[in-house]
Amino acid sequence: MSAVIVAARRTAVAPRGGAFAQIEPHDLARRVIAAVLADAGLAPDAVEDVILGNALYGGGNPARRAALAAGIPETVPALTLDSQCCAGLDAILLAAERVEAGAADVIVAGGVESFSRAPIRQHRPRGPGEVPVAYDRPPFTPWPERDPDMIPAAAALAAELGFPRAAQEAFAVESHRKALAGSAAGEIVAVADLGRDAFTRALTPAAAARLKPLAGEGAHAVTVATVAVEADAAAAVLVASECRLGAFRLPGRPLRILAGARCGGDPVRPGLAPIAAARAALERAGRRVGDLATAEIMEAFAVQAMACIDGIGLDAGIVNRSGGALARGHPIGASGAILAVRLWHELQRERPGATGLAAIAAAGGLGSALVADV
Asked: Which residue among the candidates 26, 176, 220, 330 is catalytic per the annotation?
């Protein structure tokens, strides 16, 4: 049984502490859930499951809160999954697998994240003489020496692969240029009067060159221009059985999910994990890289996106045609779902039968990819 994406929506992406600073994650997510249902002409009681990715909330099943806030009946289950940056795309892949298995016909899937409202993290004391110790992130491997922070890991990857700082900056400048020139018509659900990605700007090579390194030295350093900013956002798609399409009002041509893949890789080089996932998804879909009309590749770091474009063998001209995360921001658990929403809207502009790819990396050495056609 084939799974299709019937509708796809997202909020704008707002940098941490920006327009969405006071909005709880479930309140962001309910807006995009309601939007995809409205686009498809479905009542909330037609939904059979809700699956959302989230990385920072600290428990509590925000997918369930979002589903209830969106008016989905109490009888409908909801699942929150955490595979860090891959979580939003993994939620969509899981929904597709459930539909293909015949376990459900209509599932809302996506991701939500709020750096602004994320809980303050502390390690609990082990004994009466200790005090709580604050921490920024959990460990992603059992080996401290193979669990790098992401920014130093990106700088190390740039040095290893020979991506100079100037090339990374040029990539970031181009991401902003494409975002300013691109179209988000019909894609963004306005929240808090924000109807466009707030971080996008006319970044210039001269401005990027003046920035101090965040990690790395000299020729291969990474800076705030070449690292996606922490951000808040939500995104959702409606995944359904192809045989049920007659029950929907179609806001565009449905995307047929041809294949998905989740792969593990070297935790020290997490930015390379999507390469294997993309290759596996393309092979399962019976497609070659040259068959792709468009691709949405995560830009958590310029070097990571550049390495994936090269490693997968993509034509750079089809990648992130309306800009990427360097021009938007990186709302961890929502980022993969945003890629899928972007892919849906980009493929609407293509000929029937056109094929697209979405791929993303995550801390700990994880990669996920989706291949679909329209």
From this structure: 330
Q: Is 100 exposed, middle or buried (0-12, 13-18, 19+ CB in 10 A)?
A: middle
Buried b (16+ CB within 10 A) or exposed e, 220-251: bbbbebbbbbbbbbbbbbbbbbbeeeeebeeb
The pTM for the full model equals 0.97
Q: Which two tokens stand for residue 262?
A: 């989740």
Q: Is 123 labeled as catalytic in the residue annotation?
A: no
CA atoms of 289 and 277, how far apart (whole Å): 13
> Of 183, 139, 177, 365, which is closest to residue 271 (Cα–Cα)?
365
User: Could you confirm whether 220 is annotated as catalytic?
Assistant: no
* Cα distance between residue 280 and residue 59, in whole Å: 32
Query: Quick one: tokens of 78?
Result: 């909801």
CB of 264 closer than 8 Å to CB of 188:
no
- Mean pLDDT (whole number) for 94-119: 97
CATH placement of domain 3-118+229-373: 3.40.47.10
Rounded to 10°, the helix 302-312/150-161 angle is 50
Contact present, 279 and 308 (Cβ < 8 Å): no
Boundaries of every domain in the chain: 3-118+229-373
Which of these is catalytic: 26, 85, 176, 220? 85
pLDDT at 1 over 80: no
Flag whether pLDDT at 11 surpasses 90: yes
